[in-house]
């Protein structure tokens, strides 16, 4: 699979409207659900791919997803609940897959290739408009920081980061760089 590198200074916040373009551009229900979950949770792609039906707890108000941070061992995502228009679609999809071992059947590279193909389909050669799964992760972390006023230490715990480099990178950008980029 061809890899494309986007320098860190170009990380951008991906608004919901942009995600909707990608959802409209494909008929693949599995990929649509994966994209929604990555955008909603801020989890790494590999953490989402390994989800099983048992990781979802359906409540009256929505769904609680238990995600374990794959990269840094014991530091991991807490159980959290979210309410969003995407939630109903996610719940319908996981209900169809509850008898399978894993909800998502493809590997990481295949999902990355699908996203790259959609980027090309939507934006052509304008690579500055392309998104990656990591952009979706940054978007969610920024949303948590801006909306909830979370401190970098809290964000590290929620997202499975350990290093102080995360705090040094994210703290100054939490306010200045992402102002007005996400609702």
Describe the structure.
With 183 residues, the protein is mainly alpha-helical. The chain has a single domain (12-175), classed as Intergrase catalytic core (hpI Integrase, Chain A). It has helices spanning 16-24, 29-41, 45-49, 86-96, 108-123, 133-148, 152-159, 164-175, and strands spanning 56-58, 63-65, 80-82. It has a 3-stranded antiparallel sheet, with no helix packed on it. A hairpin with a 4-residue loop joins strand 1 and strand 2 (63-65). The protein starts with 15 loop residues before the first helix and ends in an 8-residue tail after the last helix.
Chart the SSEs and their pairings.
Elements: H1 16-24, H2 29-41, H3 45-49, E1 56-58, E2 63-65, E3 80-82, H4 86-96, H5 108-123, H6 133-148, H7 152-159, H8 164-175
Antiparallel strand pairs: 1-2, 2-3
Helix pairs in contact: 1-2, 2-4, 2-6
Number of helices: 8
Distance between the termini: 34 Å
Strand content: under 5%
Structural class determined from secondary elements: mainly alpha
CATH class annotation:
Mainly Alpha
Instruction: Encode the helix/strand succession as letters.
Output: HHHEEEHHHHH
Biggest beta-sheet profile: 3 strands, antiparallel
What is the approximate shape? Answer: globular
Strand order of the largest sheet: 1-2-3
Residue share in helices?
40-55%
Q: Report the CATH topology name.
A: hpI Integrase, Chain A
Oligomer: single chain
Kindly give the count of domains. Answer: 1
CATH superfamily: Intergrase catalytic core
pLDDT < 50 runs, ≥5 residues? 176-183
List how many beta strands DSSP finds. Answer: 3
What is the CA-atom radius of gyration, in angstroms? 16 Å
Question: What is the level-2 CATH architecture name?
Answer: Orthogonal Bundle
Mean pLDDT: 77
């Amino acid at each position: 699979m061809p890899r494309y590198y986007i320098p860190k200074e170009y990380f951008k916040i991906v608004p919901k409207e942009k995600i909707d373009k990608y959802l409209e551009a494909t008929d693949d229900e599995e990929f649509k659900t994966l994209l929604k979950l990555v955008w909603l949770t801020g989890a790494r792609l590999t953490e989402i791919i390994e989800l099983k039906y048992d990781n979802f707890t359906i409540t009256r108000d929505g769904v609680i997803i238990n995600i374990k941070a794959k990269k840094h061992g014991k530091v991991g995502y807490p159980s959290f609940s979210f309410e969003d228009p995407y939630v109903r679609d996610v719940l319908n999809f996981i209900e169809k897959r509850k008898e399978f071992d894993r909800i998502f059947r493809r590997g990481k590279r295949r999902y990355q290739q699908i996203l790259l193909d959609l980027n090309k389909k939507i934006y052509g050669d304008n690579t500055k408009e392309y998104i990656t799964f990591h952009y979706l992760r940054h978007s969610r972390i920024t949303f948590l920081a801006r909306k909830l006023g979370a401190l970098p230490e809290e964000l590290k715990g929620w997202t499975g980061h350990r290093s102080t480099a995360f705090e040094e990178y994210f703290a100054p950008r939490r306010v200045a760089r992402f102002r007005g980029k996400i609702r």
